[in-house]
Design goal:
This protein is an alpha+beta fold. It has 2 domains: 5-63, Orthogonal Bundle (Arc Repressor Mutant, subunit A); 85-193, Beta Polymerase, domain 2, CATH 3.30.460. It has helices at residues 5-15, 23-30, 34-46, 68-83, 87-97, 132-145, 157-165, 169-174, 183-193; strands spanning 50-55, 58-63, 104-108, 120-126, 149-155, 178-181. The strands form 2 sheets. It has a 4-stranded mixed beta sheet with strand order 5-4-3-6. It has a two-stranded antiparallel sheet with strand order 1-2. The longest helix has 16 residues, at 68-83. It is globular, with a radius of gyration of 17 Å. The relative contact order is 0.14. The mean pLDDT is 93.
Length: 194
Amino acid sequence: MKLSNEERIILRILKNYSSDYNANNLSNLINLTSMGILKILKRLEEQKLVNLRRVSNIKFYDFNFENQYAKDYVSLILRKEADNCSAFVKRWINEIRKIGIAEIAIIFGSVLTKSKNVGDIDVLFVLEEKNFGKLKEEVRKLNAISEKRIHPVYQTRKDLLVNLKNKDKVVLEIVKGILVFGEKDFVNLLEEVQ
């Protein structure tokens, strides 16, 4: 099932937390009129999924981390996003899901846009430092039997949190990718950044 406009807006606001979103700039990104986006945002605000923040006369919307329902709901949307990828990307998502050592995995980069013409599959793995060796071995085994190589980026939760708080441009681009697993951990991590 395809993501609804409401779900696309929620994901955009969540994953791009360092940007300010209003009806006008979201309309360019979601390809709906600003009035249509405004109606959706009002509905999302009524459901307590997003919060309204006013700066002068401009209304900005942020994800509502204070609402447990919103956090659970967006975790499901993140899973739905992964399940609705192209067949090529879904294949890699399924392969990466077999690696259970990491807490969070995000597939990002050219694989999401170029599909089969990519040289490698970029994946961010968030895990405890003591598990780096085990994960590296799992990735090595997977690379030995795959036609495309996984290009892993390893981060501890603490390192990723620091990079997100510092608004590291590379990390901000990575979190816009597709979450393979660890949806609730990912949402909790973004909450800590706020």
